[in-house]
Specification:
By secondary structure, the protein is mostly helical. The protein folds into 2 domains: about 5-105 and about 175-315 and about 380-490, no CATH class; about 500-605, no CATH class. It has helices at about 10-35, 40-60, 60-75, 80-105, 115-125, 160-170, 175-195, 200-210, 215-220, 225-245, 250-260, 265-285, 290-320, 330-335, 360-380, 385-390, 415-430, 445-460, 465-485, 485-490, 500-505, 555-565, 590-595, 595-605; strands spanning about 130-135, 145, 150-155, 515-520, 545-550, 570-575, 580-590.
Length: about 625
């Protein structure tokens, strides 16, 4: 029975209005996406049934009252119990992600070009280098998102790679390390949300993160999304402690974390940093008097100073790769290999119009068949409603969107408001990034889950007389909607298709090491650029690789053979045809260096079989960075 207490009427009216607004958002999502993503809409079809069933199950007071009281008892654990719960959730989440991936037979090896890009950088950092020197035969090692001149370096910012460096030092497989990072994202979601709302909300938010299909997909990919999400959660955790005590130790930690995020995903870091800085400024304004200016200056100077070590790493990398302190490798890569797209919104970026800084045809194919379509599509997306739709990649079920607007009622607390603000600011920030890829939204998945459980919490607070029922119903509904998206109930997760990359990963076990493998490209095979994999990511320096990967440059291949014949004459030579996906043993490098014609004859014979197009890439495979 609804509460009719006069003082609660305005809040109840606001709650009903926001609930209706969330319902309209749900209908927009549910109507739009079945047309384009019919395979992803199945959970929506059952959502109303689930919510209705939860209401029927718990409507009777003898059922929902004891459960509601149990939830109330769980909401405020002691700090020690909360710490132990955080550790337990990390272990359980990591174990579950590993178990469910293994049960589905998922591939734990490297599958995407962006993963290789990061691993090249990880190897250099693990051996104490921001970059490696240019190889004497750099042309053979050209590959997407990698610079081979004037130094050897990844195009991307080093922050995410720094998080994977301990995996090299401790000889832990990257897949395992990434699972540990993703388990930590789940655990820190619980920790932060439990401090902002309560422990029950924290548990629900953690479950929602794990229930997200795209989160489970990314848990097996060595990319920057999960490191950035984890750093963002740690940043909020540090801020929540700082606002309680205003101690300089927390200011130092906030500065360090802001610096790390800035060299991980800079645009995301701006969103997190602006929000945290504004919240800190507000807290300082409210909690100080007389010496506000000194407190402001001192706090932000300490934070900025502590961010400098990370920022200086980026400046050094900028100088080495681009020659300019303030021009990033990403900017130079766009100039060299994605010409005309820098800054976005240029109307005359057309195939074949711009010269690339390489003659390799796969770079042209990548530019014209991947970059330009996303670029032109991005120009058509300059509408907030379309970008709001990207939040579907952070929603296990569209019906959960109903709770998000309700969170506005709980934003009187600056900490809550700061974290909630990340979501709209993220959408606004990416309006100006022309190549928005849906996986980018994975960074704010914990924020979206927080906004869902905050909204559910505010619904229960708005109606005190029905609080126990609403608490049990909302918790049960969120749990059920999350559970039905798990692969144990909804079927196997979609896995990134890697085509020839997976084939070579399997064939590499047959290679006699040390070896040199030439990778052959065929311009006549559509989409073959997706199979590019000439990344040397098992060691910091090319010549230390157990398997040196090189581009097949035709008659120039003798240059590389002579090089290794003089340095490492025990290397075996192979050819991997990207189109036919065939690996051929060509013999010893020294023998072929002495008789190049014999090598060409064998390479010609190896490629005499007709090239076949690789397996088609499914819709969900996109470049992820």
């Amino acid at each position: 029975m609804p509460d009719t207490t006069t003082k609660n009427l305005p809040r109840q009216a606001a709650a009903i209005g926001l609930l209706l607004l969330g319902g309209l958002g749900y209908l927009r999502l549910a109507i739009h996406f079945p047309i384009r993503h019919r395979e992803e809409i199945r959970p929506v079809l059952h959502a109303l049934e689930i919510v209705g069933l939860m209401a029927i199950l718990f409507i009777l007071p003898p059922i929902h009252r004891p459960i509601g009281r149990l939830l109330d008892w769980m909401r405020r654990p002691t700090p020690a119990i909360r710490r132990m719960a955080t550790l337990a959730i990390w272990v359980v989440a990591t174990a579950y992600l590993y178990w469910t991936a293994s049960r589905q037979g998922r591939d734990f090896s490297f599958k995407t070009q962006d993963e290789f890009m990061y691993l090249v950088q990880v190897q250099a950092l693990a051996h104490g280098h921001l970059w490696m020197p240019q190889h004497p035969l750099a042309d053979f090692f050209q590959e997407f998102y990698i610079f081979v001149r004037p130094v050897t370096s990844s195009m991307y910012f080093p922050g995410a790679s720094l998080m994977f460096v301990p995996a090299v030092w401790l000889h832990i497989p990257f897949a395992v390390w990434n699972l540990l990072i993703c388990g930590a994202v789940v655990a820190m979601t619980f920790r932060v949300v439990s401090e902002l709302v309560d422990a029950v909300a924290g548990l629900l938010a953690a479950l929602l993160v794990i229930s997200l299909t795209h989160f489970r997909t990314l848990s097996l990919l060595t990319l920057s999304y999960m490191p950035m999400a984890l750093l963002g959660l740690f940043l909020f955790w540090a801020y929540l402690h700082w606002r309680k005590q205003k101690r300089w130790e927390w200011t130092v930690l906030i500065g360090l974390l802001m610096g790390w995020t800035a060299i991980t995903r800079p645009l995301d870091a701006i969103v997190f940093g602006v929000t945290i800085a504004a919240a800190m400024a507000w807290d300082l304004y409210r909690s100080t008097a007389g010496d506000r200016a000194r407190k402001f200056i001192l706090t932000f100077l300490i934070a900025a100073f502590c961010a400098l070590p990370f920022l200086s790493l980026q400046l050094l990398l900028d100088k080495a790769v681009t020659g300019h302190l303030l021009k990033t490798p990403v900017q130079r890569y766009e100039d060299d290999f994605w010409p005309g797209t820098v800054g976005g919104w240029h109307p005359h970026v057309l195939p074949g119009k711009h010269a690339l800084a390489t003659s390799l045809p796969q770079f042209r194919d990548n530019f014209e068949n991947f970059v330009l379509p996303h670029f032109h599509l991005g120009k058509k997306r300059f509408l907030p409603p379309v970008y709001i739709m990207q939040l579907n990649f952070s929603l296990p079920n569209y019906l959960l969107f109903v709770f998000i607007p309700l969170g506005i009622l709980g934003l009187g607390n600056p900490g809550r408001a700061a974290m909630w603000a990340i979501m709209p600011l993220f959408i606004v920030a990416y309006l100006f990034w022309v190549m928005f890829i849906p996986y980018y939204a994975a960074v704010i998945a914990p924020i979206v889950m927080y906004s869902i459980v905050l909204g559910a919490h505010q619904l229960t607070q708005a109606f005190p007389r029905g609080r126990l029922f609403l608490s049990v119903w909302a918790s049960a509904s969120i749990t059920a909607l999350a559970a039905v998206t798990l692969p144990e109930f909804a079927g196997e997760d979609p896995a990134p298709h890697s085509g020839a990359i997976t084939v070579f990963n399997r064939e590499a076990a047959k290679i006699h090491k040390p070896a040199v493998v030439f990778f052959r490209y065929h311009t006549e095979v559509p989409g073959l650029w997706k199979s590019e994999q000439t990344y040397n990511a098992q060691a910091a320096w090319f010549d230390d690789e157990p398997i040196v990967r090189a581009q097949d440059l035709g008659s120039r291949d003798t240059e590389l053979l002579h090089y290794y014949a003089g340095k490492q004459s025990n290397r075996e030579v192979y050819l991997f045809d990207q189109a036919s996906q065939q690996l051929t043993d060509l013999g010893n490098v020294a023998r072929f260096a002495a008789d190049p014609q014999q090598m060409f004859d064998r390479m010609k014979a190896a490629s005499s079989q007709p090239a076949t197009a690789p397996a088609p890439m499914p819709q969900q495979h996109r470049r992820r960075r």
